[in-house]
Amino acid sequence: MGLVPVALDLIGIFVFALSGALLGVRIQFDIVGVIVLGAVTGLGGGIMRDVLIGDTPPASFTDWRYLAVPVVAALVAFRFHPKLARIERYVDWFDAMGLGLFCVLGTVKALFFGLDPIPAALMGVLTAIGGGVLRDLLANRMPVVLRQDVYAIPALAGATVVVLTWEAGVFREWVLVPAAALCIALRFLAMHRRWSAPRASDLRRD
Amino acid sequence: MGLVPVALDLIGIFVFALSGALLGVRIQFDIVGVIVLGAVTGLGGGIMRDVLIGDTPPASFTDWRYLAVPVVAALVAFRFHPKLARIERYVDWFDAMGLGLFCVLGTVKALFFGLDPIPAALMGVLTAIGGGVLRDLLANRMPVVLRQDVYAIPALAGATVVVLTWEAGVFREWVLVPAAALCIALRFLAMHRRWSAPRASDLRRD
Amino acid sequence: MGLVPVALDLIGIFVFALSGALLGVRIQFDIVGVIVLGAVTGLGGGIMRDVLIGDTPPASFTDWRYLAVPVVAALVAFRFHPKLARIERYVDWFDAMGLGLFCVLGTVKALFFGLDPIPAALMGVLTAIGGGVLRDLLANRMPVVLRQDVYAIPALAGATVVVLTWEAGVFREWVLVPAAALCIALRFLAMHRRWSAPRASDLRRD
């Protein structure tokens, strides 16, 4: 990957690791647990993608920056969590940015590995939401992204832009920017307008 | 795989996805969560098997039918769940059929990949029960198949028939039918006679 | 691997499987669940390592002894658990031995597969704590090793000795013994002196 994608990837890892580490602090994990939960949240989605597409060992294990970033994020969360709590709204913003970055970067990687468009888009979504699902499993709570919140749909939208331009033969690296921006914008709207996806119980009145 | 094994595989995926999606509806997941839970239940066992035997990316990601079937199953569960609740007894029957199909198909695939008989049979059992275990993890409940019910043993019986005929050099594709039927029959018996495997507490009276 | 490493590996698997199976008995799993929980605890860390470094199918599936040992451990736990409860203190000792063996053996394997020192040490830690994390996920409880107890740090210490000697070019097979012994000694000290890693709440008084 070029320098820009790697930088975007590391930013995404940092913000996700921060969200995982903050959860670890809240549920009274010790510092080792906080680092593990942060690293799993930041790296888990990409690792699952790499294992599934057969790119082992995952990039996260062959590039020290991918390991250093979540550790730093976890230590920041551990030390400054009372201040971070005050800015938790901004953490949601960062999380949305991570979602946008991961869904497009994950999709592109899967396409480069020869996956078809639909599986590649799903790999992008997995990259984006996988870390959060693992975080919630380790924290012994039902995965937030499956239960509430419009979260996976913006990721799917960003991934779809990438595969459509790829299939049309007009994909260039800069496409990642508007594709990620679309995901981030949709996620912002979903948070601020409190969108929610339909539930089966909503149908009962039919 | 030939047309018949693929068709059996897709039927198994459909019924397992249905069971996962119905659980998602019951625990109030939104529609995205219901689709994810259905897909994980239908495809998870096969994906774990493929990752473990080194067949990546898993077939589920290279064949669109493997992705379409669980989505359709989830939408059916989402829309028609009040009617499905009335036929939940039949869902158990379908689930038993999925168990029988997956345990023999998973075993055969592992044998084709060069695994020894015992590991191959275990891969068959993993294919059959893995999706249900992942479903329960995501729903934050203890895996049903480990806690109650004679569920893994019928799968092991079906897988054993496949590896025995394979080792004896008399394996033909049609062997899958009686092997799956044995598993399904044992599972039916276990359900109707309320068989249960021994628990350690049962030994206390010794 | 030579005979000694394999023997050490099997001992580690046995004691970890025993801990998993005993938990299964305590939470009322039936005998199938007890065997599965024992096998996952004993083999899970090594399987995750093998999948991540790309060594599939994992050794556990190609060598019958790796499958037989956890089954025997589970049956021992199932049959003799009242007696084992009385010696639970010794189980902790065995568990510490498993930790020491797995962290150094996992690290060496990752180094042989070409991983860099830091990722290799992390693979050693994953090998040592991964089975216990999977055990706790299947038992639907928060992973003990993330929440309490100085557990991962001794494993990291043992793994560090291995990678340091490797990098210095002085690694020989016998280095595994003092490296594992360091981990085991630290774990014993942590248990007996009730060490605990810092928690973020401890910082509140700052």
UniProtKB/TrEMBL annotation, chains A, B, C:
<comment type="similarity">
    <text>Belongs to the UPF0126 family.</text>
</comment>
<feature type="transmembrane region" description="Helical">
    <location>
        <begin position="150"/>
        <end position="168"/>
    </location>
</feature>
<feature type="domain" description="Glycine transporter">
    <location>
        <begin position="7"/>
        <end position="81"/>
    </location>
</feature>
<feature type="domain" description="Glycine transporter">
    <location>
        <begin position="93"/>
        <end position="166"/>
    </location>
</feature>
<protein>
    <submittedName>
        <fullName>Trimeric intracellular cation channel family protein</fullName>
    </submittedName>
</protein>
<dbReference type="InterPro" id="IPR005115">
    <property type="entry name" value="Gly_transporter"/>
</dbReference>
<feature type="transmembrane region" description="Helical">
    <location>
        <begin position="118"/>
        <end position="138"/>
    </location>
</feature>
<keyword id="KW-0472">Membrane</keyword>
<feature type="transmembrane region" description="Helical">
    <location>
        <begin position="32"/>
        <end position="52"/>
    </location>
</feature>
<feature type="transmembrane region" description="Helical">
    <location>
        <begin position="93"/>
        <end position="112"/>
    </location>
</feature>
<feature type="transmembrane region" description="Helical">
    <location>
        <begin position="64"/>
        <end position="81"/>
    </location>
</feature>
<feature type="transmembrane region" description="Helical">
    <location>
        <begin position="6"/>
        <end position="25"/>
    </location>
</feature>
<keyword id="KW-0812">Transmembrane</keyword>
<dbReference type="Pfam" id="PF03458">
    <property type="entry name" value="Gly_transporter"/>
</dbReference>
<feature type="transmembrane region" description="Helical">
    <location>
        <begin position="174"/>
        <end position="190"/>
    </location>
</feature>
<keyword id="KW-1003">Cell membrane</keyword>
<keyword id="KW-1133">Transmembrane helix</keyword>
